[in-house]
Amino acid sequence: xxxxxxxxxxxxxxxxxxxxxxxxxxxxxxxxxxxxxxxxxxxxxxxxxxxxxxxxxxxxxxxxxxxxxxxxxxxxxxxxxxxxxxxxxxxxxxxxxxxxxxxxxxxxxxxxxxxxxxxxxxxxxxxxxxxxxxxxxxxxxxxxxxxxxxxxxxxxxxx
Length: 159
Description:
The protein has helices at about 5-15, 20-40, 45-50, 60-75, 80-100, 105-125, 140-155. By secondary structure, it is mainly α. It has one domain. Helix 2 crosses helix 4 (about 60-75) and helix 4 (about 60-75) runs antiparallel to helix 5 (about 80-100). The two termini are about 15 Å apart.
């Protein structure tokens, strides 16, 4: 069995309850979006100096995280990598808009992050099982891939 299949199967063990699954469809993207927003808020002058450009405001620790995360997905599954590139683009575009729209991007991101984690823990309380990342931190990155694999299955796209 491929590593990605093992990880998705193991992640799915603690995500059987339909309410918990629904909570994850809302909260996992919200956590991902807000984490990128918090990272985006970290001053990145040094990063801009290293790269040599701010690429229209996209040179920051949020986009660096997205780049590294997509490379992780490439290692696990080239098929899921393609979908995660689209998701990374949407997350970066949304955070760029949030950055331009508000003076308190960090605070907005922290509030979304906290609310989404409360939702996650409520979902797991309903499920009666601990979140997978408590066993292995890489499951924090498997959550988005787990959701994406359902979309792939629905569309008949191999991953």
